[in-house]
Write a structure and sequence with these properties.
5-stranded antiparallel sheet; Methylamine Dehydrogenase, Chain H; 31 strands; mainly beta; 283 residues; 1 helix
């Protein structure tokens, strides 16, 4: 493993990863998916409710839950979750905050505002690819157009990641990772862009491809955390196999093959972080 070693730190019975990237914060419990959420929780971001918690000093914050945050080079802070407004701005499950003006901003207007998630959906993951924002979660539309649980915001308009009838993945997206032009999505799904993919897939800008046999070993095999580092993709979640070979909840994808990280863990891996040549896992 080229010097990689795993470090697990237990705090009050919960394993929490040390976050190595500022602005890559996530909270627990995706709504409507309590069981998976307890295993696939995103640490370090609070659930926000109006009149209880201020967000960035705003009197009321957002009127629901915030599950993911990421900071753009411009200074804009993007938020995703399960909400319909932040302060006095209508924002459908995703919004931006400008710390210079101390104002929330909607991503789109009218029917093109944010994403449409239904009663038990929302945004669970955010990532930046260049100047574009990638949004993952459980939803059926972005900017008013069909989008299957993943979409792109370029600063002025929404677009889908797919072709034909399938505009994304057939299931849920829990985490995202970016390596140059490649975007990786992990979650609980059976296909991406119509291509069979076991809970993890790669979008190269024009098409989806599976990562070998993906993860498996159980009916609810899921990917909760992704971390690209040292030329490889590290994957955490709830599974007993990766690429058809034994791998206990954590594995490495080299770009062409899967490998286990030692004996893995005895429970689900909810988050990963890289520091130097080390990978930290929490669950």
């Amino acid at each position: 493993m080229r010097g990689m070693r795993q470090v697990w730190t237990w705090v009050c019975g919960l394993a929490m990863a040390v976050a190595a990237q500022a602005g890559d914060l996530r909270e627990a419990v995706p709504p409507g998916h309590a069981d998976a959420a307890m295993e696939g929780s995103r640490v370090a971001q609070r659930a926000l409710r109006p009149a209880r918690t201020k967000l960035f000093g705003a009197p009321r914050g957002c009127n629901g839950f915030v599950y993911a945050m990421v900071t753009a080079p411009s200074g804009l802070v993007y938020l995703g979750g399960d909400f319909s407004a932040c302060e006095d701005v209508l924002a459908s499950n995703v919004a931006a905050y400008d710390p210079r003006t101390r104002q929330f901003l909607a991503l789109g207007s009218g029917t093109a505002n944010g994403i449409s998630a239904g009663a038990f959906g929302g945004v669970y993951a955010l990532a930046l690819q260049g100047s574009d924002l990638i949004v993952g979660g459980s939803f059926t539309a972005a900017g008013g157009a069909p989008a299957d649980s993943i979409a792109r915001w370029n600063g002025s308009a929404w677009s889908t990641l797919g072709n034909g009838e399938v505009q994304g993945v057939a299931g849920l997206v829990y985490d995202l990772a970016v390596n140059g032009a490649d975007l990786y999505a992990g979650g609980l799904f059976s296909s991406a862009g119509g291509v069979p993919a076991a809970s993890i897939a790669r979008w190269d800008g024009s098409a989806w491809t599976a990562l070998g046999g993906g993860v498996g070993g159980r009916d609810d095999a899921s990917v909760y955390a992704l971390q690209w580092t040292d030329g490889a993709l590290f994957v955490g979640g709830l599974f007993t196999q990766a690429g058809g070979a034994p791998a206990s909840n954590i594995a490495r994808w080299s770009g062409s093959a899967w490998s286990a990280l030692g004996a893995g863990t005895d429970g689900p891996v909810n988050t990963l972080a890289a520091f130097g040549n080390e990978i930290y896992a929490g669950g």
